Amino acid sequence: MLEDTDQEQQDQRHTAEATWGRRLLVQLKAGGSDLQARIVSSLRAGIPKASQVTAVLGRYGAHLAIVTLALSVGLGQRLRPFADVARSSEPRAVSAIAEAINSPTPGADAWDGYADVTVGKASSAGIVRQAHPQTTIPDRPRLEPITYVVQKGDSVFLIAQRFGLSPYTIVWSNMESLQGAPWLLQPGLPLVIPPVDAAYHTVRPGESAEAIAQAYAVDPDALYNTWNTIEPDQLLAEGTLLLIPGATGPDFDWEPPPPPTPVPVAPSRPAAAAGAAQPPVQPVMPAANAVANGWFILPTGSYAVSGYVFGDYRNPRHIGLDYRCRLGDSIYAADGGTVVFTGWGGGYGNLVRIDHGNGFVTYYAHLNAFAVANGQGVAQGQLVGTCGTTGASTGPHLHYEIRLNGAPQNPKIYEP
Ligand SMILES: [Zn+2]
Asked: Where in the chain is the domain with CATH 3.10.350.10?
């Protein structure tokens, strides 16, 4: 990471690099493939300063080998990180420079591509300042994924626009926290923002690179990139996070299904059946005891866990706790509060969310049936629904989440 104090220097260097790129391309157009080979070898060695490039071009000939060697030795070490990037992206780098030169006023796309590919890590702390009144592009091209905390008023679309990415990338990179239910996006939730349009995948037991690549409709080569630490022919460890550029992730809906919320199969408890059939009551007066006590009971009445714990080593992005329960078992409000969501939560399946009014919100997912309605006040221990396996679930269990001001908490820590 470069310090901010280096910024001015970075900016100057960036300008020099841009000039260098243009000159090379002019030469490239005039000079043919021999020069192209030398440019590629310069790219491999790292991006030299403009003055050094001028020297290269000026003494084009017998001195070239010596100068190239000097550049390799002198700059290779220092610029190693982005030499790697250049190596993996030579064709794109050259074509991006070509685009930049071909357009009379360099367009945002061309310059973004150029900055991304050829400057790489070295400029992650350097700003490309261009006036783009019509577009919202990040002013710092970056090569590393970052964490972004959802702000009030954010939507997946706004976040995607802010980072110059596809909205699908935002969802596919955060399947564990969004569960393919972008309408549930809440302020305070940390999201991973990859540097390019991509999907994140958590390796499951026995999965091969080929199978993952196929599932995401990419070539297996796409998995061996600068972000992943895997090697070809290596067994993939369970829980490994893979960034898959250009991936097509799982299907999901942008909007919840229209009301009335479908309530699935016969609940085994009469209370749940009656609750599920109730139309939403409006206006709903909060129950007198629908106030948070400030501590949580066990939503299943048991400590038994089945499936993933919070941040499970097999699934590091799992932000809840999977409690064991049987189909139709009662699920209880962990504390008093107001039901703020009852409905379809994508991968969450049938989901109840309770706002406890003290910064805490709890999630009860994969429910078989609902016993509460949206807007209703609930007391601690009140039935909210029954255990099920709706949504992205392989068997009956309760996926339970506690969020404090939007940030996922480890439910184990809050157990009574
Ligand atoms: Zn879960």
From this structure: 146-245
Task: Output the six-digit token pair for 128.
Answer: 């490309």
Q: How far is the CA of 320 from the centre of ligand 1 (A)?
A: 6
Chain segment 357-405, per-residue pLDDT in tens: 999 999 999 999 999 999 999 999 999 999 999 999 999 999 999 999 9
Q: What is the CATH number of domain 146-245?
A: 3.10.350.10
Record the pTM: 0.60
Q: In angstroms, what is the span from residue 242 Cα to ligand 1's centroid?
A: 20
CA of 200 from ligand 1 middle (Å) equals 17
> Which of the pair, 208 or 92, is modelled with greater confidence?
208
Please give the distance, rounded to the nearest whole angstrom, from the Cα atom of residue 233 to the centre of ligand 1.
31
Residues of CATH 2.70.70.10 domain(s) within the chain? 270-414
Q: What is the pLDDT of residue 273?
A: 43
For 270-414, which CATH superfamily applies? Answer: Glucose Permease (Domain IIA) (2.70.70.10)
Distance 167 CA to ligand 1 centre (A): 24
- Spacing, Cα 156 to ligand 1 middle (Å): 22
Evaluate whether 404 touches 357 at the Cβ level (below 8 Å).
no
Q: Pull the structure tokens for residue 212.
A: 């993952």
The Å distance, Cα 322 to ligand 1 centre, comes to 5
Is residue 297 within 8 A of residue 332, CB to CB? The reply is yes
How many angstroms does the Cα of residue 310 sit away from the middle of ligand 1?
8
Residue environment code for 7-18, b if the CB has 16+ CB neighbours within 10 A, otherwise e: eeebeebbebbb
Q: What is the rounded distance in angstroms from the CA atom of residue 413 to the CA atom of residue 411?
A: 5
Burial (Cβ within 10 Å: 0-12, 13-18, ≥19) of residue 400: buried
Question: In angstroms, how far is CA 137 from the centroid of its own chain?
Answer: 18
pLDDT in tens, 32-60: 444 344 433 433 343 334 444 444 444 44
Distance from residue 251's CA to the centre of ligand 1 (Å): 19
